Amino acid sequence: QAGSSLLDLTHGIGGLLPRLSRPANHSRIHYAVMFDAGSTGTRIHVYTFIQNKLPILDNEMFQSIKPGLSAYVNSPEMAGHTVRMLLKVAKQTVPRVEWKRTPVILRATAGLRLLPKQRAHALLDQVQHVFDESPFLVPDDSVSIMDGTNEGVLAWITMNFLTGHLSPQSQKTVGILDLGGGSTQITFLPKLRKTIESVPSADYVARFDVFNSSFELYTYSYLGNGLMAARLGALGALGAKGTVFKSSCLPKKFRDEWSFGGLTYQVSGDPEGLSGYKPCYLEVQKVVQGVIHQPHELQDTSAFYAFSYYFDRAVDAGLIDGERGGRLEVRDFKRRAKEICNKLTSSPPSGPFLCLDLTYITALLKDGFGFKETTVLQLTKKVRNVEASWALGAILDHLHNMKIHRGDETFPNPVTCDL
Ligand SMILES: Nc1ccn([C@@H]2O[C@H](COP(=O)(O)OP(=O)(O)O)[C@@H](O)[C@H]2O)c(=O)n1
């Protein structure tokens, strides 16, 4: 699934060049490899850049493997094996002569953040070993757990780059909503000073420079509010073991095993209790209430791109096309959640968790972030054949050092300081 467009860093999709105009001098082409070690899967992105005054993204090769590294918490060598398998994609994509100057980097997200430190590091040590044995360039800090603040910022950079909004001439930018398995991110460029002034803590603000522009973003990553972690929260299963977890969001006669983060849970519907949208909403609400901060501004006018599980579940629910994506209003998730939850059978064709998942997405958007029911979201998997993910932003940061820093470094007291 190689991308074919040439993306100019300053003009995003505007920088389309015809294939024949490729520079004959191959030394101007270079490669970079980013692994995304997510809670539900590990993915490799192999980027091809053309060196220009500013580099141009020529192509992305992408492949993924399930489950994520955290599933191998009791057999860390399998984590190394996963990465070794995916590195084959890099070997096939990058010409052999370029291997020793092609950087390989792995960043882990919520799956490893949720594990005890020692166990997470045992997994990362295996990955480091595979990198060190590989013929690629292994920079300092090539394998680590990414800071949650950066995850949102880097996804914002990816989407604004791919949609052509990072150029100094661009007047507007797009916000991002990323729903992973373990964590969820919201990031946007505030229009109102009040939005920055009224954040609950300084780590909701990030500043950085990119291609001669400086940005100050509202951004936050909520650990434990990814879709899989939210299922556990709704079931009351976080940290608990050895029982059957019942939910009014699951079909009454449903009972099965379900695994996440290296643990397996017994889950079922509630045969004697309630089922349907209303009781389910009450269950999922407790996962967001008092947890998610509502930003001061979330106007309809600011465009939000939503991807990862927002996209996948919108496809599963038949709300958008899996190839083209599409635009949805927040209330479309709610309407479909009601339809699915209110006729839960023992084995719905859409899968037993769809009611829970859509209800959680509705609660997260409305009661969590405080979006209006009529807010329009652009559901996206790829832009110009490049994955909607933080990975491209992360490689751009590695290549161009954007000096991302959190608000607290220069922002002593956001509530009282006079800006
Ligand atoms: N390049 C990617 C990366 C993740 N995803 C989706 O993101 C969701 C899970 O994200 P994740 O496993 O990285 O979770 P976190 O570790 O970020 O919480 C799944 O729906 C994946 O299919 C994607 O569609 N494309």
TrEMBL record:
It comes from the Eukaryota. The active site is at E151. ATP binds at G181, G182, S183, T184, Q185. Keywords: ATP-binding, Calcium, Disulfide bond, Endoplasmic reticulum, Glycoprotein, Hydrolase, Magnesium, Nucleotide-binding, Secreted, Signal. InterPro entries: GDA1_CD39_NTPase. GO terms for cellular component: endoplasmic reticulum; extracellular region. Gene3D superfamilies: 3.30.420.40, Exopolyphosphatase. Domain 2 (3.30.420.150). This is nucleoside diphosphate phosphatase. Its EC number is 3.6.1.6. Its cofactor is Mg(2+); Ca(2+). It comes from Periophthalmus magnuspinnatus. It is an enzyme of class 3 (hydrolase). Belongs to the GDA1/CD39 NTPase family. It is found in: Endoplasmic reticulum; Secreted. One of its GO terms (molecular function) is ATP binding. Pathway: Protein modification; protein glycosylation. The keyword Signal applies. Pfam families: GDA1_CD39. Monomer; active form. Homodimer; disulfide-linked. Homodimers are enzymatically inactive. Hydrolyzes nucleoside diphosphates with a preference for GDP, IDP and UDP compared to ADP and CDP. In the lumen of the endoplasmic reticulum, hydrolyzes UDP that acts as an end-product feedback inhibitor of the UDP-Glc:glycoprotein glucosyltransferases. UMP can be transported back by an UDP-sugar antiporter to the cytosol where it is consumed to regenerate UDP-glucose. Therefore, it positively regulates protein reglucosylation by clearing UDP from the ER lumen and by promoting the regeneration of UDP-glucose. It catalyses: UDP + H2O = UMP + phosphate + H(+); CDP + H2O = CMP + phosphate + H(+); a ribonucleoside 5'-diphosphate + H2O = a ribonucleoside 5'-phosphate + phosphate + H(+); ADP + H2O = AMP + phosphate + H(+).
